[in-house]
Amino acid sequence: MSSRLRVTIKLFKSIILLLTMNEINWKAVDLNLLVAFSTLMETKSVSLAANKLFVGQSAMSHSLARLRELLNDPLFERQGHQMIPTAKAIQLYPLVNKVLQTISGDILKVDTFEASEFTGTFKIGMTDYAELLFAADIFDAIHRLAPNAQLCFTTVDKANYQDRFDSEPLDLVIGSMKPELKEFQYQTLYTEKHVCMWDGQRHPFSTPISLDDYISLPHALVSPDGALKTGVDKELKALGVNRAVSVASKHFLTIRHLMKKRDLICVVPELMAQLDLFSEKLVHSEPPINVGEFDIQLIWQTRNKENKRYQWLKELLIQTIEKSVITYRT
């Protein structure tokens, strides 16, 4: 059981004990009354307690009157210059202190995060493309700084990533999505362009590939939504030509396996084509038409933007992916 959970359970037990001692209208109790009670126990003086809490003596007397009414007990009896606690006040004091210590030491403490001590799980949503490119580098970076943490990659796409934030739940998402809802924020990591790829042993086309060669082979598509047409088809139609699409898959690795020793050509992101696993006689070239570029975003929930754990993970992913992109491109 975590220390945070143990403290929370103690808080609940303390509150339950306080509630069961009397039938009290706890809606009328605020934290200031508990603080006032604790300070009166420490100082045994209304004036000293007022000075310590930077309130007027009349305000402290009013708090004491409210406590007496709520708890149906005088709590303190004046003897000379001191306020002597009753048996009930003495009984309540350690319970009230537990509640105040839990609130100040756990619930209201400054949010911090120590990666080296973290033993929880980071859950990162990534598109198939982003996971293939960056999962290994992200694992290495997190394992180096947070060696006791666990890491879980979840495949997401444009259609489901927003729901996955809560259903998984996810810490961050990486992919070619730009959220428009105020519940999400994002940062552009880099801009990617497309290239053509084919088996160079079967088809020794010159590079950059010509339009005639480009449309001479059946095409394979990486299609997250299963569509068999893209903006490429519109570009080709404007030039008065067409292509024949033979196969589509949402997974880049599937398309990569299909390219080997087959009469196929496909369009993939440039960084994808530069992976070592794509270098087995597969050739890539700039397309003969305008395919367009796309941005890769890092996305997080607005409500978690101040959380130190999320901030640490966000900055680490930004730095890691920036280094990875530079490596791929050099």
UniProtKB/TrEMBL annotation:
<keyword id="KW-0805">Transcription regulation</keyword>
<keyword id="KW-0238">DNA-binding</keyword>
<dbReference type="InterPro" id="IPR005119">
    <property type="entry name" value="LysR_subst-bd"/>
</dbReference>
<dbReference type="InterPro" id="IPR036390">
    <property type="entry name" value="WH_DNA-bd_sf"/>
</dbReference>
<dbReference type="Pfam" id="PF03466">
    <property type="entry name" value="LysR_substrate"/>
</dbReference>
<dbReference type="InterPro" id="IPR000847">
    <property type="entry name" value="LysR_HTH_N"/>
</dbReference>
<comment type="similarity">
    <text>Belongs to the LysR transcriptional regulatory family.</text>
</comment>
<dbReference type="GO" id="GO:0003700">
    <property type="term" value="F:DNA-binding transcription factor activity"/>
</dbReference>
<keyword id="KW-0804">Transcription</keyword>
<dbReference type="GO" id="GO:0003677">
    <property type="term" value="F:DNA binding"/>
</dbReference>
<feature type="domain" description="HTH lysR-type">
    <location>
        <begin position="29"/>
        <end position="86"/>
    </location>
</feature>
<dbReference type="InterPro" id="IPR050389">
    <property type="entry name" value="LysR-type_TF"/>
</dbReference>
<protein>
    <submittedName>
        <fullName>LysR family transcriptional regulator</fullName>
    </submittedName>
</protein>
<dbReference type="Pfam" id="PF00126">
    <property type="entry name" value="HTH_1"/>
</dbReference>
<dbReference type="InterPro" id="IPR036388">
    <property type="entry name" value="WH-like_DNA-bd_sf"/>
</dbReference>
